[in-house]
Here is the input.
Amino acid sequence: MDDAVRRQKMIQDRIADGRLPNNKIGRVSATYGTGEACDACSLAVSTEQVLYRLGRLGVQELIFHNACFEELSRRSAIGLDRPRKSGSRCRWLN
Ligand SMILES: [Zn+2]
Here is the structure.
């Protein structure tokens, strides 16, 4: 299993069992990591990697790698960085 597939599966599982959110999140900030563990893949976010923090009222902050955060955005309904609708073609012209 390559890293991307492993990450997708891990994030899917964690959304399913409630460890990762599947709804809108209050606050997001991005910074560089300082070695803390990513809440999606459990690997450390190094000082060369961008780290995303998701803050939710009354819930402990979650920390993600850039790639893990993107994967979470794709798979959940957190409402951030949604993928663009397929291409820019107007469907009425096809
Ligand atoms: Zn990660």
